[in-house]
């Protein structure tokens, strides 16, 4: 009898089958399409990274970050503005349905639903298709999110008073003065400090450190008001008013 003739193969359920997972092909099976990680691939990565790093450094030198004056807790009129990538959330909080008593909706609920949908997108669409028009659900979500962010950012930029914001954050010259002087004591006890700052740098009102007004004009404005400053705010005596006006007139930046 020849070798192997009449042999039968039977399966034994007690012996586990040797099943291999989906192992990708070896790189050697793709001739001309592979390269060594060191130094070829890594050198290319370093070169690309260096180009972007140098470009970023040049950009930061050519356009340095804008600086504003030091934070002043007494200036209640200052309106902070977030960076450009948060402007869409900043604009969202301006709408009636997301502000005031509904602030939780605008600050937590709506952003939470949006980012939650983004995190759940891979689980909602498990199909192997990668073309966008054949994945209507995730594509629609991404287009809606992108359109909303662009629209809200645009609305925030268009409706913001950039001139007022620039004046609010402008670095102002500080005045040299004696905090023990009688004029400063009168100033700090009056209502002036709430609008003009504790160093005369301005806030809700203009800066007094660089004013071109004379002592007489300053005294008249304190009594009769000017522009947005209402009349009748001064409650001191005439002698204190003259001392205050003289003190402000002698301020030098």
Helix-strand blueprint:
Blueprint: H1 37-62, H2 87-92, H3 103-124, H4 136-159, H5 162-169, H6 182-189, H7 193-196, H8 215-224, H9 238-249
Helix pairs in contact: 3-4, 6-9, 8-9
What does this entry show, briefly?
With 253 residues, the protein is mainly α. The protein contains nine helices and no strands.
- Count of helical stretches: 9
CATH architecture of the domain at 84-159: Orthogonal Bundle
SS content category? mainly alpha
Percent in helix: 40-55%
Could you tell me the radius of gyration in angstroms?
Answer: 35 Å
Low-confidence stretches: none
Distance between the termini: 116 Å
- Counting DSSP E segments of at least 2 residues, the number of strands comes to 0
What string, H for helix and E for strand, traces the elements in order?
HHHHHHHHH
Tell me, briefly, the overall form.
elongated
Any idea of the CATH topology of the domain at 84-159? Helix Hairpins
User: CATH class of the domain at 84-159, please?
Assistant: Mainly Alpha
Largest sheet: none
Q: What fraction of residues sit in β-strands?
A: under 5%
Overall pLDDT = 78
Structure overview:
The model has no long low-confidence stretch (mean pLDDT 78). Among the domains are: 35-62; 84-159, Orthogonal Bundle (Helix Hairpins); 182-249, Cytochrome c-like domain (Cytochrome Bc1 Complex, Chain D, domain 2). It is 47% helix and 0% strand. It has nine helices and no strands. Helix 3 (103-124) packs antiparallel against helix 4 and helix 6 (182-189) packs across helix 9 (238-249). With 253 residues, it is mainly α. Belongs to the cytochrome b family. Keywords: Electron transport, Heme, Iron, Membrane, Metal-binding, Transmembrane, Transmembrane helix, Transport. It is a multi-pass membrane protein.
């Amino acid at each position: 009898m020849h070798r192997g003739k009449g042999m039968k193969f039977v399966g034994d359920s007690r012996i586990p089958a040797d099943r291999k997972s989906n192992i990708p092909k070896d790189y050697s099976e793709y001739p001309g399409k592979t390269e060594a990680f060191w130094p070829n691939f890594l050198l290319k990565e370093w070169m690309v990274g260096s180009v972007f790093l140098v470009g970023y450094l040049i950009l930061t030198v050519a356009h340095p970050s804008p600086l504003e004056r030091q934070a002043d807790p007494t200036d209640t009129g200052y309106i902070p503005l977030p960076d450009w990538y948060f402007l869409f959330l900043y604009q969202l909080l301006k709408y009636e349905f997301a502000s005031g008593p509904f602030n939780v909706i605008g600050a937590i609920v709506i952003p939470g639903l949006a980012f939650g949908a983004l995190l759940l997108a891979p689980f909602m669409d498990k199909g192997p298709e990668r073309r966008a028009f054949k994945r209507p659900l995730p594509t629609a979500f991404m287009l809606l999110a992108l359109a909303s962010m662009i629209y809200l950012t645009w609305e925030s930029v268009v409706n913001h008073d950039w001139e007022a914001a620039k004046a609010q954050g402008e670095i102002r010259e500080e005045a040299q003065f004696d905090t023990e002087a009688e004029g400063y004591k009168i100033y700090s006890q009056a209502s002036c400090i709430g609008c003009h700052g504790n160093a005369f740098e301005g806030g809700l009102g203009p800066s007094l450190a660089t004013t071109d007004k004379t002592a007489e004009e300053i005294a008249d404005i304190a009594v009769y008001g000017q522009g947005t400053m209402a009349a009748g705010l001064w409650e001191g005596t005439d002698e204190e008013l003259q001392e205050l006006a003289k003190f402000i007139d002698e301020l030098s930046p």
